[in-house]
Amino acid sequence: PKDVGIRALEVYFPAQYVEQTELEAHDGVSAGKYTVGLGQSRMGFCDDREDINSLCLTVSHRLLERHGIEPRDIGRLEVGTETILDKSKSVKSVLMQRLEPHGCTDVQGADTTNACYGGTAALFNAVAWVESSAWDGRLALVVAADNAVYEAGSARPTGGAGAIAILVGPDAPLVFDRGLRASCMRHAYDFYKPNLRSEYPTVDGKLSIKCYLSALDSCYQLYCDKVRERDPVSEPVTLASFDAFLFHSPYCKLVQKSFARLAFVDFLNTPKDRLGDRYKDAASFHASKLEDTYFDRDVEKVFVQLSKVDFEQKTRPSLLLANQVGNMYTPSVYSGLVSLLISKPISELAGNKIGVFSYGSGLCSSMYSLTVTRDTRDGSGLSKIITALSYVKPQLEGRHRVSPADYTRVLAAREHNCHIVPFTPESSIDNMFPGTYYLTQVDEKYRRTYKRV
Ligand code: ACO
Description:
By secondary structure, the chain is an alpha+beta fold.
């Protein structure tokens, strides 16, 4: 099959949020720490009506419905998540409730987990299936979702919640570049969830940032090498090779620093005699080693400044959802794609090269690229994807603001009720967006039932 890639894309985020300025005041930290220091404006969250199953049911139903996809069109269904409700039963099997009544049970795929990377692993599985001898001509549906919550403390403002559904198939308007995938996988205890009775991770914040940046360095250098191997006479890859760059976004400030980091790698890869005037403030860093500079303030400052214009153009537009909803974990980098697609006129997206960096603690990471079709006519695949996403900005604005005190109460109740059965949720469903699935009950045998608004 030709042009295997993304044929449709939908996002879901909860209908309530906390304002980060209010959270700063509530937490007693200095004004600006979460908004300026971390670059976050609002944080979406789930009350007791939503869980990983409902998030995935909502977004997958939304995609099938809004894009006119019939259950018989789906040959593979994959879920990537790190929100674990059950150690055996997959979320994918829960989603089969949508296909099974139509007699469609011949559907491959199961859940994939590794922190924020599970969605990318699921997506790669789907692409591999379409490109493989096992493919039967049907489409693959990939769902990534998480409820990202942290215990009270410095990590709490970097939470979020949401879901993404991606339809993968041939002749797509957003095509995965073949043979150009760079990964970095290592063993690290930077962020993990060893306590199965808690929704909260165990986090070493500083180590997680170091791991993220070192994985980014490795993936980028390897991606550049792979392009060179494929085409030895091509121009070396630099940030200039990309029209847009998407990053997994734990918080937006880290993404800006990551973009600057790629500019720094470009600089180190440039021979000294070819540096030119642009780098006159940076020349003294040319002998630096990447691994000595993760927390080097001087390097960071110079390269954030040097890459600012490019960052505003190539990456800032992709941070709308990350800034407004927070870290959705597995969907985060794909919320970046949604944000990018709704940020500019379709003519400006035509033919774009989009770099993607996906990171999941523990750690798994990959960098790859997508090429956007040049066909931007009304009714084209790309135009349909973008038109279908027109609800995103109004829904972001249509959410309800909840006070930090009430948000804290919601999280305390989730802590208290975690794995307690039988359980009947109490939160109102009045404010949910139309089409949202909600939990009605967990019975004494831990079986969950849902309804749709
Ligand atoms: N105005 C402006 N900026 C401020 C203010 C203020 N009033 N106060 C602090 N800041 C800045 C700090 O200088 C710092 O900036 P820097 O990053 O450029 O140094 C930033 O705000 C954050 O402040 P810190 O004191 O570094 O924050 P803290 O250590 O309390 O927590 C952390 C930050 C570690 C990211 C924490 O939120 C966390 O653990 N989050 C979860 C882990 C995470 O997201 N890791 C990233 C990759 S792994 C993953 O995706 C889960």
